Amino acid sequence: MLIEFQVGNFLSFKETVTFSMVASDIDSQDAELDSNSVFTVNEELSLLKAAAIYGANASGKSNFAKAFGFMKWFVINSSTGIQITDDIDIEPFRLSTETEYSPSFFQVTFGLNNKIYKYAFGITTEKVHIEVLSCLNNQKEYDLFRRYGNDFKINLKSFKEGKGLEEKTKHNSLFLSVVAQFNGKISEQILKWFNKCQVISASGTHDNLYRNISLKFFESPLRRDIVQFIKDLDLSIYDIRMTKESISSETLPSAIPEELRKLILRSSNLRSSNEVSSVQTLHEKYNEKGEVVGTEKFELEENESEGTKKLFYLSGILLNALKNGHLIVIDELDAKLHPIITRQIVQMFNSNKYNSKGAQLIFMTHDTNLLSSRLFGSRLLRRDQIWFTEKNQQGATDLYSLVEYDIPEDASFESDYIRGKYGAIPFIGNFRQLLANQ
After folding, report:
1. Three-class secondary structure of residue 81 per DSSP
2. Where in the sequence is the domain holding 267, given as residue range(s)?
3. How many Å apart are CA 425 and CA 390, to the nearest integer?
4. What would the pLDDT profile of 66-95 be if each residue is shown by its tens digit?
5. Do both 290 and 347 map to the same domain?
6. For the domain that residue 138 is a member of, what is the CATH number?
7. pLDDT per residue over 201-244, tens digit each?
8. With contact defined as beta carbons under 8 Å apart, do 222 and 319 qualify?
9. Considering the domain boundaries, does residue 214 fall inside one?
């Protein structure tokens, strides 16, 4: 469970911004919404199940997802995927002389195995400057280890798994990642937590980050739920099947150029299996009387809409998160989806019925219908579940929540946002002069 995420001096984030999934002490005047959208960790802490981030184009919404995605990637791969001679592929805020050579900062606070951990690091392209892992217990915080460059201070009582591994840690790798490679119990569990978090760019139909994951879920016991999920969304699909074909030089068409043939075979050899998966959707076929007389098979990639393809590739990840209480960050959740379907996905996370394990959904969107209470008769999101990104005149992104505004709970969030009351909207120039000289 995610409690808080901070990022600074990365892409469009100049100053360190804080995103929180901690439920605020507010009464949304909708007892059902409050009950469904919040889950209790302990007497002092309650967390949100979903959060939406709004903002103008190029305001930094996608950079938030990239920031969390980079932190995940670096934690998991820095000890094995980076050579000692490699630069760290990090991009600081480039529009200020104050930050271009300063470390980029990342910090996450999360719950794991009935404990709360805080993990942070600061890096440049050359090295890890600072790295800290601490634990919060009974409102007291203590370090498990603290690192400044090559200087390590390890709490041998609480993190003895790190003893003796300081010299095995490269200047451009994280100590936590190294300790996990040597089977450190705490560090290994933390890496697994990061690995279970999914960060998805859903602006297109699908991307390679989650296509293969989705296909694996379809081969798991989740298959039945995935098919039912698609059917429940009224996409006129009767069933979904998957077939596999082996790739070899003999199975490729003879007309394919030799260089392309080599590239395809080389790519397939890099996989654990040389099989390619093909997904088919089944639709009912009718006669002139409107009676079902059979089924027709469609190829997902060739015959289905972009929205249907996106839903299929998202479905396994969404359902797996709900089943196991995982975190998902989705950029442009609403792209290519009908507003009612987007709302239904959010409602599944904001639900005690479907989300009993504390799964969390953070998504970037332009869909203001989700802010409306009049359109569907009730609110979908509390004020603390609504966040905004906005750039200042120097091109730096600020991140803030609607809960920071002193407004009545019955305010029209949607119309007030469109009118600019909360900022985070585009400033349109004077188009009257655009073709004045033509």
Report:
1. coil
2. 222-324
3. 8
4. 999 999 999 999 999 899 999 999 999 999
5. no
6. 3.40.50
7. 865 544 666 788 888 999 999 999 999 999 999 889 999 999 88
8. yes
9. no
